[in-house]
């Protein structure tokens, strides 16, 4: 997407999701692809050791790992995920994420 005339979110074009966002040393990077009243689709890239502290969300969300390895804790239950795996985060359940290795994920939040 180096062409400055293209939108930051692809419209009717094929993209490689894992290549559509880059890792940044010591950081969590996000890129929103869809932001609608009914839900959002966001790409994330977590550098090794980075994460999101425990929080809740009022909506169900689906997480798909596209690269790397992550540890997720949902309502006290730890999960280990690798590239190609997914899980559902239920609404109103506390959850946290940590990059065991740098990882990329696609988060689909369903609001309705």
Describe this structure in words.
- This protein is mostly beta strands and 112 residues long.
- The protein has one domain (17-110): Jelly Rolls, CATH 2.60.120.
- Helices cover 0% and strands 55% of the residues.
- The protein contains no helices and seven strands.
- Strands 1, 2, 3, 4, 5, 6 and 7 form a seven-stranded antiparallel β-sheet that branches.
- It is globular, with a radius of gyration of 14 Å.
- It starts with 27 loop residues before the first strand and ends with a strand.
- InterPro entries: Cupin_2, RmlC-like_jellyroll, RmlC_Cupin_sf.
- It comes from Desulfoscipio gibsoniae DSM 7213.
- Residues 43-108 form the Cupin type-2 domain.
The radius of gyration is: 14 Å
Unreliably modeled segments: 1-7
Output the number of helix runs.
Answer: 0
User: What is the approximate shape?
Assistant: globular
Question: What is the fold named in CATH at topology level?
Answer: Jelly Rolls
N-to-C span: 31 Å
**Structural class estimated from helices and strands:** mainly beta
The fraction of residues in strands falls at over 45%
User: What is the C-level CATH assignment?
Assistant: Mainly Beta
Number of domains: 1
């Amino acid at each position: 997407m180096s062409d400055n005339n293209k939108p930051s979110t692809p419209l009717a074009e094929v993209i490689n999701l894992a290549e559509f966002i880059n890792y940044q040393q010591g950081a969590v990077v996000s890129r929103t692809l869809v932001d609608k009243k009914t839900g959002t689709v966001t790409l994330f890239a977590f550098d090794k050791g980075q994460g999101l502290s425990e929080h809740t969300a009022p909506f169900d969300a689906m997480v798909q790992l596209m690269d790397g390895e992550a540890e997720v804790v949902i309502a006290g239950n730890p999960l280990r995920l690798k590239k190609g795996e997914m899980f559902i985060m239920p609404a109103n359940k506390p959850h946290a994420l940590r990059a065991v290795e740098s990882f990329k994920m696609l988060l689909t939040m369903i609001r309705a």
